[in-house]
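Provenance and format

Records in this collection were gathered into a single text stream. Each protein contributes a sequence line and a token line. The two records reproduced below are adjacent in the stream.
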Amino acid sequence: MLFLKQIRAYGFKSFAEPTNLDFTHDMIGVVGPNGSGKSNITDAIRWALGEQSAKSLRGGNLDDVVFAGSVNKPALDQAEVTLVFDNQKDRFSTVDSPIVEITRRFNKKTRDSEFLINGQKAKMRDVQDIALETGLTKSSIAIISQGTISTFAEAKPEQRREIFDEAAGVAKYKKRKRETTIKLLKAMENLSRLEDINNEIGRRLPNLEKSAKKALQYREAIEELQKYELAILAKDVKTFKFRIDELHEQRNIFEEKVKKLSNEINFSEEEFAQMIEQNSSSEKSLTELNAKFNEYVQRISNLKVKKIDAENRENLQDKNSSQDEIKIKQIKKQFDQAKISLQTEKDRQYKLNNRIIELKEKYDYLSNEYNNTYDEIQSLTKTKYRLQNEKEVNENGNRNSTSFGPSFGVQAIIKQSNTLKGVIGTLLSLVTVQEKFQTAISVVASASMQSLVMETSQDVKNAVEFLKRNVAGRATFLPLDTLNPSSIQGPQRTAIEAFEGFVGFANDLASIDNKYRKALDYALGTIIVVKDYDSAVALAKSMNYKFNIVTLEGERILPHGAIIGGKSKSQNIFGDVKPVNSLEDIEKTLIQLDIKEKELNQKLNDLKIERDRIRDELADVQSSIRSSQQSVESLKISMKEFSEDYRIIAGKNLLETEQNSFSNESESIKITREISKLESERDEVQVQINSLSSNKNKYADRQIELNQTNSIKRKELDKDKEELASIRAELAVIQEKNVRSLQKLAESYGITEQTVLEMEIPEFENEQEVRERIIFLTTQIKDIGPVNIDSIVEYEAEKERFDYYSIQTKEIHEAAEKLQTIIKDIDIAMETQFKKVVDDVNLALPEAFQKLFGGGTAKLIYTQPDNILETGIDIEVNPPGKKISNLNLLSGGEKSLVALSVLFSILKARPLPLVILDEAEAPLDPANVERFAKYVKLFTEETQFIIVTHREGTMENCDVLFGVTMEAKGVTKIVKIKLIDAKALAVQDPDNQ
């Protein structure tokens, strides 16, 4: 039967060139001298079918399967072998194809190794399964070598059993049993682990259930409280909002009326005062103007006389100088030009000096502005830092508070102060404040006073972990070892302390033990307390609204000018009720500070640019002054030279003459201009006299009219002020309530005013009962105390895990039982098939033994008949004319015949599609070789034989021979040859290959 149709090899061992072996017959001989590579064909088949042992392939490691090179042939990097099988009888049940090609490649450089089945990549396990299915495995009789024959007879019974396992198909059952046993072990391991986990969960569940029930009760109370409280607060806010809007509208109307009436009255009073003043001023002005008018007349007359004298002097001077005019004309012209230039330069110097004064003043102003702006930015940065700290403190300390007293978190820490290390107490509990300062400090520090003073930051860490662990709320902590208080220092502090109305800095107005002073300074160090509202406004304005200022009555001015005022019943935290500050003012102030900081930085940059420009211009002007001064000195020298020339020619001093002429001419012109000016002023005085006289009587009439109008308006103003005060008082009360409600909504529910106003609010049949229910739930929540709200989810998760693992445990128990059943079934199947194969071989063995020995008897026996799964196989043989008690007493040839008779009996009992005999008959004498070859021929109907041989008797019985030679040393070449050529090859001297 033809099963293996072709072998293709390239790079495998001595196959240095692509080599194809096409098998067309059932009994094929492979012949050739020793060392020519005959056995490499067998190795190629085994390697392609997944053999991993380098030793089994007659090598040291996997690299040895790749052609290593020869004298004339370089080494190759890759080995590849392909086996082509006929699968028309479906011997490979896992491959649906009439032809099955199995390929294996290995690259020793990249270490890449791959298997292909019909050109598709496959796993080595798939190829090994195919080999197992067809019996082509290492321990089966499909590949029988001389070593297999020689060791079979001498092998221990347990080792000999392996061949029968393969023949019985037990190998696949053993593989399945191994896999099933591994699964069973893993299942039992998983089962043990699951039982441990479930036992641990089971121990924890009761406590978790108890904690979860308490947390559930707490959560249900909280949810019910939130449902009612949210609705009531939202309703209150809407009601307050509606009333606030009404009051705002009314207040705006009355404020506008009051403002309008006040402005009208003030304007009338100012006008009335002006009328009185103007009337008195008119009388005085008329007297002064009449005297002034007479003075102007006298001065004009005197100036006219002076003008005549000046003109006479100028005419006389012109006559005296006329004779010299021609001679000195040229010199005088030059002198005049120099004089004009000199005056021009002096005028230029005057303007430049004025410009220098202006630039210096502007530079000094800009430098001062720059420094002030820089200081303001520094102060603003400190204020932002302080407010951000204050905001963080308020957020941490008040977010979970349900009232104006200590938050749940603070209360929880105080309750645990006996077990928690480093708890000193709230800042409020450590501070003493005089009654007159309590309102002021309460307004600005209600939140920070509820902060917990702690010894160290490590103590704070432990307290925070406690709050987290018990979901007990939040708290603000002041660790004494890390606090870094800030305060107002330097000139600003000096100026504040000298300000009228200044009472003190808040931290100085409270008493505390010195070892806790850092906490007090941190909370109050930058807060200024003043006497009253007016003092606060004045101080804030003088300090450019940089600081937090509070009055003794509780009015508060925040940095950047925001003002908080009014009064509430819970204003004093040192009494029974301790209010908590809202974060709204701080957040708004921080936004304003950010905007202000950007504006100041821009202003600072602009000032620097302008100051630098002024400085550059100042340098340019100073340079121009120096240049002009040089020009003036040069012109003066030129004028002296011209004057000297004039003196030589005319005998006169040109400078003196010119100065006198200029002086007289200037006096005449000046007198004329003065006369004109005085005449104009005289005429203006006359017009004023006429105007004052005509308007004087009007002022008295207007005074009477204004008096009557103001009397009526004052009565109306007083009435409107009373109404406005009433509106403001009601508005303050409503706003106070609204702020508290909004604070509660924001802190407890994270809801803004806008969201509240858009909410649909449920209607309650009895609102009073709902409000009483809120009080009851609040008390109930406090009574429940700290809970671990996560325990609800944790319990549900653990319960779910417990149930899940319980199911898993049960399923694994069932799976383990099934696996144990499978193993038992496998053992039964292996035992049944093994016994069947041994029985079948025992039936065939006598015939095979007699054919190979020419007579005698042989029988297989169990070494452990009661333990078929572990028994070894022994052979009882009696060759013709002999009785043997031990196989070792047989000759080498006889041992080979015994082994062959058993192997052929197995083959008869369980036919294989392919058997490879690699010099299996080598130990036999020629007669037995002939008998062996003829006996093999009997099996070719069901089995294909590939026989590697150098025995003539075997060659003669083969259908076709493949000759294996090494024409080039180290490189195998294969050719089909005739029988006579095979004989010649078989007797060649190996040394001449």
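Adjacent record:
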Amino acid sequence: MKRSVESTFVIRPSDKRTNCAVEQRLPRILAMENEEARDDKERVIVLLNETAKAFQLQVAALQEELSRATSSIAQKDIKLQDLTQHVVDLENESLEQRKTNQGLNSQLQVLQNTLAEVESQLQSADAEFEEMRATYEAKEAEFDKKSAESRTLTTQIDGLRIEIDRLNVIIHRQEKALQTKAENVPKMADACLSARDFSEKQLISLRDDALQAKSKELSLVTTANDTLRAQLDAFEAEMENLQRTLTSKDMELYRSAKRIDKLERHVEKLEAAVKRADGQELAMELSTKQNTQLLQCLQAEEAKNEALRAKVDALTQDLVHVNEQKSQIRSDAAVVEIDVELKTKSLERQSQTLATSLEKLQKERERMRDELASVRAKARLEVEAIQDELVQRRSKQYELTLKLHETESLLHSSQSRKEILEEELQATQERMKDLERLYMEAKRWKEDMSSAFEGLKIEHSQLQRTHKTEAKKFDVERASLQEQLKEMERFVKAQKMEMEQREEKKKLAKEEVEKLEKKIQELETRIHGLVAEANNETKRRVGVEMELTIAHGQLSQFQAQSNDMLAGLYAKHKKLQEAKEAVQQQLQQLEYEYKREQQGKSQLLRHCYQDSQPKGTLSSCWLSDADLPILVRFVQGLDRALEKLDFGSNRITDQGVKYLLQILKPMMVSMVNLQENYISPQGVRQLAAGLEEFGCIVNVHEGRVEATDEAGKSILTVDISDNKDASSLVYKPQMPKPAKIKKPKSVTKPDPLKDIYGVNLVQVLMEKSKEPVSNQGGKYQTPSTLSPRTQSLPKL
């Protein structure tokens, strides 16, 4: 590749002296750039060696921790096996003691059953005697009650006879009074009436007919009003029934919703119970299979560690073969990228399948919700229909009320007409008052007399009937009481006979009881002996139970200790997993930084050997804080100012701000791009403070630092937006120490054409010379194996 000077330094043909000076400086500048490029390449190789050594140290530490964990787990497994064997022995001893105790318990149960049978016989005899005594006492109480009732009936009969005599006396007095009144009544005679009296009678009859008609109309209106009121009451009752039905339906809906909620809760509880049962079963299985699971976990961890070792070996092999197979690395990177894309596509497909399944579940859930909503909507429609019916009935009620108002208005008009007619009839009424009063008094007197006479007759007949019926009842009750007395006498005699028989039976029972008592005493003596034996056996049993409790306590202690040990092992295992995850994250970060180092190296080579790149563009080169001093010297050695310095997508942190200030101090740059680096807000403030010390007016806004002079003209702009957190970085870069390069004896003079035409990229990175050097063993050695940097790499 040919490198042109015109792209980096623009030569103006205005001055011949300047052209001569530039031509004189060209070889020195090219030599300096070649030396800087070589230094950078050597630094990159040293950094890769250091990363490989760090990986080896971390892998060795992880292997030591795994070996310690496996040894501790093996010791604990041995302890657990001893404990389980001891528990099995204790359980066998407890089973033997339980068998002996069961035999003794069976003998005790036989003796207790015999005693229970004897006691049940005695209790049955006592119960029969008490039942006989209770029946005799109940019959005596019934006899006393019947005698008291007969006495009360006799007293009632005497009182009724006295009342009958008094009523007969009253009836005789009233008959005499009626006869005297009938004799004192004056005799009435018919008289001839005049034409005036006849006309007045006709008017009175017409008035009476009109009044009767009005009264009929009023009665009809009142009946109509009553019917309307009854209809209104029925309508209100129906409305209340409808409201009750509505409330009942609402309550049913509410109850159905509650039932649904309860069913859902019940389902959840059942699921929780199933989960608990599964958890209990798993716990029981885990208690028996902990050792195997721990071994499986250790095997899995060993497999993972072997995989990590394989990864580390692969990385070390990659580091060894970097010098020989750069083209292969590129092809492998392409293959890896294709694999990653395929894996990402497969993961996307899996995520799509999961998303579809989740969508199906959500659709089913929405369908259930829609069904519930439809049920509620149906209920609401029914309620609305019922409400419409209520509205219609209310409208009918309003129509009926309007009709009532119309009838009331008609009533008011009829009442007004009635008042007018009453005013017309007042005169005639005043005339007829006296006659009507006399007539009504006579009529009332006659009606009162007839009603009183009829009432007396009815009362007399009723009294006679009651007297006859009571006399009949008394005779019947008297006969029944006499029969009952005879039966009671017979019953008492029979009871006396039964009592005599019972006394004889009691005597026999006493004799049998005495015999049974003798047998019981004999049994008691036997029982005392058995109880003494049972006490001895219980003492032995208590001793065995004490030993069992002690054994159970020891067992629980051993179980607690084993649980504590398992918990400690689990905690250690968890810590190991966390440390492993942290190491994996650091390894991923280191891989990412390694890839960025490789990309930065290739980007630096591209910037160095491509003509199209302007000077000052160092984006995506993965420059660190340790690389900035070289750039300080580069900027300080410039003859003219640069328009822009592009440091974007590098790993510059707050520690490199001081070098950035040294770069910006001569004010040779007007624009600096520091996007996508690792500078914190504190570093931005530090940069702004440094620019203020240079005598500039600084304005900081959203990661952009603008420096202006006193006139307000912008001198410098530094873009520090979109920066990242520096704590995520793992590797800390350092300046590589310059290695002492031993020149071989057969090295010829450097070819001056290399500085002009350039060399191959692989030879620039990995080779120092193209001439073969003879080895002591006679084998051919490549330049990569002769370099001290490759000899310093760790041998894996």
